[in-house]
Write a structure and sequence with these properties.
The chain has about 350 residues and is an alpha/beta fold.
Length: about 350
């Protein structure tokens, strides 16, 4: 570690108890030698979780396509020509059948996503019934429905919802280059409503969208400084979907079209773990493209949750047998992760 980095990098013990991070501190973590960063992340991880347990979630698209928003990465935007057909909201029976299959395959949380700017009241009624039925199976429930109106989070809480997913996607300074139909502040407003309703927050972002390391650090900074921190933090690698504006993303380095370096992705997982020690860090979209070796490094860096199943809304994901084979190679167990092992948790 060089003399310039040392003053702004906390010890593992300090990192586990601190309340606020600065941009300089998060960037300094990114700049650590890779082995030092991994050691620090694994130390924080072991202080808070079983290092060999992975929590499994399954994600189902309950309403696909036709979204009015212009998110530059999304295949479901009506503004992008991706060949995706608009579908109606799934029947409750179909959702419950999929949830039962997910539970049988080992998932402990069932996540339902709808391609909406936000739910209409008539649709929210159907979703709350889905939540009740899935909850009755003994699964944790999660939904991602877009931006919420006042009172809607309370309805979801009354139905038994455990988690609401609403990602920040990227840092505030880069947000307008990815999405223009709503603001970063709109995202924070929905998160505040979710918290006020007493629902756990699932909130992360996407890297590899052409952003700089400073922007990646800014995203982690914003997530880590949410109060309280998100209980679940999905970190996604951009999946380049043909027809979306970001399908041919170019890094700001000027070196031409390329994907984010895998080691930079692992660094992002590690920095998320250090700055959010008690959160589940989920290795999410793009996992299929990473391959086994990079996924193993992500688990070493502190990722302890994945989406399980061969599809994430509309993009591919490793199939169950591939995940089981990887877990066997790494000696990972798939029991539910119970959270912090520290006293009082």
């Amino acid at each position: 570690m060089n003399d310039m980095t040392q003053p702004v990098v906390d010890s593992v013990a300090q990192a586990a108890t601190r309340k606020r991070w600065s941009q300089a501190e998060v960037e300094a973590l990114y700049a650590l030698p890779f082995n030092d960063l991994m050691f620090r992340a694994q130390s924080v991880h072991r202080a808070n979780f079983d290092p060999n347990a992975i929590q499994l979630s399954t994600l189902l698209s309950i309403k696909t396509g036709g979204c009015s928003e212009d998110c530059g990465y999304c295949s479901q935007s009506a503004r992008h020509d991706t060949g995706l057909e608009r579908e109606k909201l799934l029947d409750i029976a179909e959702v419950v059948a999929t949830a039962k299959a997910a539970k049988a395959a080992g998932a402990t949380r069932f996540c339902m996503g709808a391609a909406w700017r936000g739910p209409k009241e008539k649709d929210l009624g159907a979703v709350t019934e889905m939540v009740r039925e899935v909850k009755a199976l003994g699964l944790e429930t999660c939904v991602t429905l877009g931006m919420l109106k006042p009172g809607q989070a309370a309805q979801l809480k009354d139905a038994g919802l455990d988690y609401y997913n609403h990602n920040l996607d990227t840092a505030a300074e880069f947000y307008g280059q990815v999405i223009t139909t709503h603001t970063h502040a709109d995202r924070l407003d929905t998160l505040a409503q979710v918290r006020d309703a007493g629902i756990h927050v699932c909130c992360g972002g996407i890297v590899g969208m052409g952003e700089s390391r400073r922007v990646r650090a800014g995203l982690i900074l914003e997530l880590a400084n949410l109060d309280p921190q998100p209980e679940s933090v999905p970190i996604n690698m951009l999946v380049k979907v043909a027809g979306t504006p970001l399908a041919q993303v170019v890094e700001q380095s000027g070196e031409g079209d390329k994907s984010l370096d895998p080691f930079e992705f692992v660094r992002t997982i590690a920095v998320a773990r250090i700055t959010m020690p008690a959160s589940h860090v989920r290795l999410s979209a793009g996992r299929q493209e990473l391959g086994e070796s990079v996924q193993a490094l992500c688990f070493l860096a502190g990722a302890n949750s994945i989406f399980y199943g061969d599809k994430l809304l509309t993009t591919g994901n490793p199939d169950v047998s591939a995940d089981e084979a990887l877990f066997a190679k790494l000696g990972l167990t798939t029991e539910p992760v119970q959270g912090r092992r520290c006293a009082g948790h």
